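Researcher: Structure for this, please.
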Amino acid sequence: MHIENVLWKWSLGKEKKTSKLSEAREVYEVAKWLIEEKKFKPECSYVLEKYKKLVELFEKPYTFKLKLSLTVKDEEKVPPWEKPVEELSEFFLERGLLMSIEPKKNKLFFFEEKPLP
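Model: Predicted structure, token format:
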């Protein structure tokens, strides 16, 4: 499942904002139905992050931050960064939580192959 980001390129005009918000509400309703009722799996953690933003926009849920520190014990076993992110996203979704990872300051981590210094 893929969720289109209808809020991207938010226009300054009031009519456009209302239109975009209306589109976002429709996407939210369909995505929520597919994920929660039909148990569809989003195709990746990026899609889950888009869904998380829609939930935050329309439901105003309780949100908290969790800081996670990882230590590389065996560099040979460290998978590409996308794999643990996908697995964490699925883990939290199965428990009723949506997650996103904040980018590192002054560094775009998604260009890294492994989460190594």
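Researcher: Any notable elements?
Model: Residues 33 and 39 are 8 Å apart (CA to CA). The mean pLDDT is 79.
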